[in-house]
Amino acid sequence: MKLIHTEEPFADFLRLDRELDEYYVRRFGDVALQYRLYNTLDAVTDVFTIYDVAVPAGIGCIRPFAADGAELKRVYVREEYRRRGVARQVLRAAEEAARARGKTYMVLETGAESTEALALYGSAGYERSEPFGQFRGDPLCVCMRKAL
After folding, report:
1. What is the C-alpha separation between 67 and 58, in angstroms, rounded?
2. Domains of the chain
C-alpha cells in the first residue's frame, strides 16, 4: 500500500468520495442524503489517497477547525480493502499533517450507527466530545476529539 498526500482532491480521490456517498445511502437509506451538504471538500488542506499498486483503496482529508484544530473528513475504504489497516494509515497521515500545520487537536463527526468507525477512532485515542456546528442536537451524529 502506498499513500499519496496532496493539497487538493484529484480524480481518484473524487471517485472514492462519490463511492462514499453511495455507500452511505445503501447502508443508512435516504436519511444519508441530508448530510451531503456537510460533506463538501471546501477548505480542505490535506488529501490522502491510499493505493494498492494502481488501485485506489481508501481516502481521507482534513481541513482547518478553529485556529488550532483540524477536522477529519471523508474517511472511506473500499470494501475489499477493509480490515487491512488502510483507514488507520489514513488516520495517522491526517494526524501527522495536522501537527505539521501547527494544529493541537483533531475533531471528527461520524454516524451513531457507524460501529466500525466508532471502534477505529476509539482505539486511536479519540473520545466523544460535545457536538459541534451543524451536528449539535443531532442524535444520528457522534462528535469526537483527540489531542495531537
Report:
1. 28
2. 2-104 (3.40.630.30)
